[in-house]
Design brief:
mainly alpha, two-stranded antiparallel ribbon
Length: about 375
């Protein structure tokens, strides 16, 4: 069996060639660079495929993220072979979203490979927020937090912008879920709360987040609770109490800590089988990630919800999991001109609805 860590080294080596060139407007279209780009794209695509194939022991969530990485890598290779260098470069840049989602799931330290990769790139044209996200995607978590804190001190960047763009959520994800550094997160939020340009709704978010962090327990960040699911449920319930409407972000800290517990739980049980316990973990993970994740490129929350449904369609929470998935899917295909649901998406939803309805009807009725 191939070692996923070794495969990641090969992927990083390919990205060390591709990412710097993708950020250069003429990088992928330079005839002198064509051979090196082709070789790196082939290596990236091949090793991403191996990662999906041999990463099963890390759990279905890891395999899903590896699959997305493989598809983006293959599409970048296909576009380059078709004489579309700009489109290929775009896919190379976007696949870092997969890296960010994967690396920010679990506690982890900085990676020397990421630091070496960064030294090879000219990032002068990148905005500080884009730089911070790329740093996190390449496992330079400490540097990412430093960059975000620089952004938060900029007088021309308003707290409202930080919240609406998801920058505060990105920062807290790394500070809390990856680094487990509650004190650093608290210091940053308290400093932000003192600014005189904080609107009332952001001020309320900051107040609740600070209060939640002040009471968070070490066991929540380390995943050492005797009943991980019970603690995750309790944290989600606490977040629900402070959330006034579905898109309200006041429960963000509760969701982040709960999702950290759930990611560690699912990662430590890589063979889910038909366990209703595992199905509940994926349902809760889908619900929390749907309120945390801001990526427009791909959305792991839908995958977690669907995994939960298929794993235990007769479970008490399955109808709610389907309801959340259906709403998210329809909303993602809704615009100013109405809803235009692709046929394959409609077919998928109909199949899941049938699966849930039949399983629920087959359950023995209470006397």
């Amino acid at each position: 069996m191939m070692d996923p860590t070794l495969l990641m080294r090969e992927i990083f080596a390919a990205l060390a060639v591709l990412l710097p060139l993708s950020l250069d407007p003429s990088g992928f279209s330079d005839p002198e660079k064509k051979e090196s780009v082709e070789k790196a794209l082939a290596a990236l695509s091949l090793n991403a495929g191996y990662l999906e194939e041999h990463g099963g022991e890390r759990g279905v969530g890891f395999r899903y993220l590896a699959g997305n990485l493989k598809r983006d890598a293959q599409e970048a290779q296909r576009r380059f072979s078709a004489g579309q260098p700009a489109e290929s470069a775009f896919f190379v840049q976007q696949l870092t979203e997969n890296c960010l989602s994967c690396h920010a799931r679990l506690p982890g330290g900085d990676a020397p490979m990421g630091a070496r990769l960064f030294k090879r790139m000219d990032l002068s044209h990148l905005s500080p927020p884009d730089r911070a996200r790329l740093q996190a995607a390449t496992r330079q978590f400490s540097a990412s937090l430093d960059t975000w804190e620089l952004v938060f001190r900029m007088p021309d960047v308003s707290p409202a912008q930080m919240e609406m763009m998801g920058w505060l959520a990105d920062y807290l994800t790394v500070a809390i879920r990856v680094n487990g550094d509650v004190e650093r997160a608290l210091a940053t939020l308290r400093q932000l709360a003192l600014r005189n340009d904080v609107p009332q709704w952001v001020g309320e978010d900051l107040r609740v987040w600070i209060s939640a962090l002040e009471t968070i327990q070490a066991r929540d960040l380390q995943g050492r609770d005797g009943d991980t699911l019970a603690r995750a449920r309790a944290l989600i319930a606490e977040g629900e109490k402070v959330r006034e409407y579905p898109a309200d972000h006041t429960g963000l800290v509760h969701d982040l800590v709960a999702s950290g517990l759930l990611h560690r739980f699912t990662e430590s049980h890589p063979d889910p089988g038909g366990s209703e316990t595992m199905a509940e973990a994926y349902y809760l993970l889908g619900s929390t990630e749907s309120r945390i994740d801001r990526s427009y490129w791909f959305d792991p929350a839908d995958f977690y919800l669907e995994t939960s449904i298929r794993m235990a369609p007769g479970a008490p929470f399955a109808p709610q999991a389907y309801k959340e998935l259906e709403e998210r899917t329809i909303r993602s295909h809704t615009g100013t001109s109405g809803t235009h649901m692709p046929e394959d998406e409609r077919t998928r939803l109909d199949a899941l609805a049938t699966l849930v309805n039949e399983a629920q009807e087959a359950k023995p009725q209470a006397p």
